[in-house]
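Record type: monomer structure entry
Structure origin: computed from sequence
Chain ID: A
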Amino acid sequence: MKISRYLQLVAMLLVVAQSGLADETPAPARPNVLFIVIDDLRDWVGFLGRHPQAKTPNLDRLAACGVAFMRAYAASPSCNPSRAAVLSGLRPSTTGVYENDTDWRPVVAESMTLPSAFRRAGYHVAGGGKIYHTAYPRRSEWDDYFAGADRNPRPEQVRGPGDRIKFGALDVEDGEMRDAKVVDYAIRQLAQKRDQPLFLAVGIQKPHLPWFVPRKYFDLHPVDRVELPPYLEGDLEDVPAEGRRLATHLGDHEAVLEAGLWKEAVQAYLAAISFADAMVGRLLAGLEHSPYRDNTIICLWSDHGWSLGEKDHWRKFALWEEQTRAPMIWVAPGLTRPGTVCTKPVDLMAIYPTLCELAGLPVPEHVEGRSLRPLLADAGARWEQPAISTYLFNNHSIRTEDWRYTRYHDGGEELYNEREDPNEWHNLAADPAFKSVKADLSRWLPRKNHPDRVPGGQHREVDN
C-alpha cells in the first residue's frame, strides 16, 4: 500500500515537472514579413514564360524558392486603386477609388490597413519607396518610412513619342538610382536586430515610366533582336465601344507608330524590367545575410500589368490580360515547397488575409479577399473563386482558368476562351452558343458599385 502511494506521488511529480518544463519552452517566434511590390511589371518575367526575351534571373530564383502564381490578377489595372485595394482589403467597387487622381485616405480609416494591422500586433512596421500611390501617403501607419524622394537622373538623349512614353539609357551606376537607394534602406532595416518581429514593405518603382535605367540593361536587349508582342490588325473590331475607348482615346499606339519607335520602346521596357530584377536580387541578398533569413515570409507582387501595343493600346487602364495579369510569388517557411507552381486564377485581394493568417493575426471583418493559405500548402487544392478586376465605375472582368468575361457599365461585353485564344483576339460574347457561359461567369460580378469619387477621371499619372 505504501509503495503504491509512493508510485502515485512520483507520477504526480513527474506530471508537474513536465508541465513546468513545457511552460518554459519558448513559443515559436512570429514570422517576419518582407513585402515587395513592383510597379507596372507585366507578365514578361522568366518564370511566367510569357516573353522569351525577358531576363529576370532573380525573380526566377525567388519563384523557385516557393509558390509562383501563374494566373494572378490585379484588383484594378491602375496604380492607386490597385494599391489602395490590396492595402485596405476593400475592392475598388466598394470604395469608389477607381483612378490615380482619387485620394483613398478619406475612404479608408487608418485602423483598416495592412500596415496598421501588423503594427497593432506588435510588429515593427517599416516601409520604403512606393507602397501606396506616392500622391497620397499616410506616414502615421509606419514606425519608420523612407520615401526615396530623389528623382532618377535623366539621360542625355530622351526618346519617345510625345510626353507620356519616354525612355533613354543612363550612363550612371545602379547606386545613383532612386530604387537602389530604397533597397539600401531596406537592407539597413534587415541588418538591425529587434525584440519585435519585422514587417518590411519595399516598393520598387521600375519598370514604371519613364524608362530611364543604366545603359547596361539596354545592352542586355539589343534593339535588333527585340520581338514585338503578338498583334492582330483590326483586333478592336469586335470589341464594344467602352473597350475601344479605353484602348485608343489617349492615342499612345498611334504616336508610337508615327515615331517609328515600337521596338525601341519595347527594348526600354525590357531594360527597365531587368533593372528592377537586379534590385530584387540585391534585396534578397540582404535578407540572406540578415538575422531574419530563416523566419521571413516573402510576398512579392506587381500592382498590375502593362500593354505594349496589343489591341492598339499602351500602358495599363484596360481590362484585358496584359493589363490585369501580374507576377506574384510567395515563400512561407514551413508551409511552401520550393519549385511549386499554382495555376489557379487568383486576384491580389488575397494578399491581406493571407499575410494575416500566416502571421497568426486575426483577419479584419472588412477584408474582402480570401486567404491563399490552402493553395500555398497544396497548389492543386480546390479553389472555385475566379479573379476579379475592376477599372472605372461598373466595369468588371472575371478571369477563370478557361474564360475571361468582361462587362462594361453600358452593357458592352467581351468573352474570350483563354485556352484556345490566349491573345484574346476573338470576342465570343455575341455568340448565342456561349449564353450559359456568360450567365455562369456573371454571378461573380460585384453587386456593389460605389459611385466614382472623381467623375471624369483622365488616367492622370501624378507620380513618376
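Annotation 1: The CA atoms of residues 32 and 296 lie 4 Å apart.
Annotation 2: Residues 262-288 form the longest helix (27 residues).
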